């Protein structure tokens, strides 16, 4: 009966076992946790080095127009988005320096930038009682960005609180704490938000309403400190000329129909449509823009929608109006390419 | 492979859904690996959850996207080992051979049980080779042991299994 050890051994080693319910549940829970983390991450990311740079600038008291400082910023602001780096190198950043203290926490909006495609906020928090931060893992805030006309542009608010706006401008965002100094009670909190559709309104007399500071501990506990911090958002760029450069398709009969290609200071916002319904999102992961010099720019996210048997993609590429490119090529691997000319 | 690389690329950019798709494609191997190393479903569930979340958080450290599967498997094995080490205070299996499954001689011992009872260094070598699909060189790098040691562990492991397997055959025949 057991004359075939090898056969049975190989069978055991390669057999597919049905997963017990307990393991299945745990796996599905893991996936949910990752999806939640991913959303949070997306609501967060890019500002790490921006904050470090901002902090360094405060310490040294240097202004942004100095060439030497520009180089330093480039180094500090190197958070992986070439478009934002280029924007900052070109002075596309605002210093707000708006400060409010409540509940023993001083919150300062140090710097920010925004165009239709991306919005970056750089906060500094100082805790009067640094012991609150013992064993801290992360600090975040519940806050809303309200424009001067009362329109809520962006709300980083947990599900437990109602939104005041309709959350129609932004696609996602990321946040980070590049500085978590438990000894001094100093925290840096940086946020980058983007709009795949490129519809973030211009900031005019905007205010950031901070409702809570959330302290996450390594133990898994959370301390929520409710308060009222209102920070005004300076925006001197309102007085600057329009920095948008528009592009249009060279060949109107291309299978990729570009309906919008606007290069702003932080990125190129692009919308195109394709005939038919493309269910697989992976189709668009590797789409890229190639400039005249052969430089390639990929995407980190996009919005896919369908309408009238067409697939519509909206996204940002990290090539900016400062690039002053006359000709760009959009390549969607496996589908085709289209040349874009500056209008 | 093309699809795997694409998904890893997306996941590295923070796309949680892409990461979930990657793990889902490989969850059977992960489960089989953990279930062969650990003794109960609860531990398997814990180790897998721990490994998957940890892998997501450390994904930026993955140098070669093509090796995602091996990489996450290694994380899982490390988690399993930590769990086993924690429990070592409670029970230690030092014997290279099968434990006696009772003195009555009537207890059925299957190959699966024999494998589960194998000393963990042998069991791990078999799992890495047959389930995870690593070659001798890769196992040697992972376990930081010479290739010769790995070869002999694999050979010894099978020899132990074979011997015990046949040793108990008589019991089974008698049982019938």
UniProtKB/TrEMBL annotation, chain A:
Domain (DUF4179) ranges: 45-122
InterPro entries xref list: DUF4179
Name of one Pfam family that matches: DUF4179
Keyword match Membrane: yes
TM region(s), chain numbering: 45-64
Keyword terms of this UniProt record: Membrane, Transmembrane, Transmembrane helix
Organism superkingdom: Bacteria
Listed name of the protein: DUF4179 domain-containing protein
Source organism per UniProt: Oceanobacillus zhaokaii
Automatic annotation (TrEMBL), chain B:
Domain RNA polymerase sigma factor 70 region 4 type, chain residue ranges per copy: 110-159
CDD domains assigned: Sigma70_r4
GO molecular function annotation: DNA binding; sigma factor activity
Alphabetic keyword roster: Sigma factor, Transcription, Transcription regulation
Pfam families named among the record's database cross-references: Sigma70_r2, Sigma70_r4_2
Entry similarity comment: Belongs to the sigma-70 factor family. ECF subfamily.
Name the UniProt record assigns to this protein: RNA polymerase subunit sigma
